Amino acid sequence: ARHVPEIAALLPPPIPPGQKPAAPEPPPLPAKGGAPKAAEPAPPPAHPNPKIEELRRKLEKEPTPRAYGALAEELRKAGEFPEAIRVSREGVEKSPSYPTLRVTLGRALMENGELEAARQELQTVLQAVPDNILAERYLGETLEALGDKAGAKRQYLKAVALAPGDAQLVA
């Protein structure tokens, strides 16, 4: 992380040699007067991203594959890969043949570093829908990250054949 400027700027300064990190603060002591009363569990805090919160409410009202996909994609975009994976998998369990949800799952797995699982998920999409451009592209990216340059090139070429005018794919 120290070698990536964007991440290094977020890290705390290094501890000088010979010094120990500061000890964490102990938790506060309980109030006097006996055992604390059992409190009702607090509701989960609202998500800081209002769009994600809105999509969660929509999913609760109507748990369709599209609702799962929209929430999972927004979580993925927000960098919340484990939660995007969880929501995607839940949706896939309920609607295993919905390819868009599986593509989102594959992409979230890839971005979370679970490359082999991403490869398997994207291949599943392509078995069901061989002309899925996004699955072809993300499978290419996954294979490239796995070190399979020849496989990645094959996938990119398939994707370009499906979308010849896509400048990102051509690049």
Provide a brief overview of the structure.
The protein has 171 residues and is an all-alpha fold.
Question: What can you see in these coordinates?
Answer:
This protein starts with a helix and ends with a helix. It is mostly helical and 171 residues long. The longest helix is centred in the middle third of the chain and has 14 residues, at 81-94. It contains nine helices and no strands. The chain has helices at residues 5-8, 50-61, 65-77, 81-94, 99-111, 115-128, 133-145, 149-162, 167-170. Helix 5 packs antiparallel against helix 6 (115-128), helix 5 (99-111) runs parallel beside helix 7 (133-145) and helix 7 packs antiparallel against helix 8 (149-162). The protein is globular and about 60 Å long.
Specify the helix fraction band. Answer: 55-70%
Q: What general form does the structure show?
A: globular
Counted by DSSP, the helix tally is 9
What percentage of amino acids are in beta strands? under 5%
Question: Termini distance?
Answer: 28 Å
The biggest sheet, with number of strands, parallel, antiparallel or mixed sense and barrel status, is:
none
Rg over C-alpha atoms, rounded to the nearest angstrom: 22 Å
Which residues form runs of ≥5 with pLDDT under 50?
none
- Rounded mean pLDDT score: 83
Structural class: mainly alpha
Number of beta-strand segments: 0
The sequence of SSEs as H and E is HHHHHHHHH
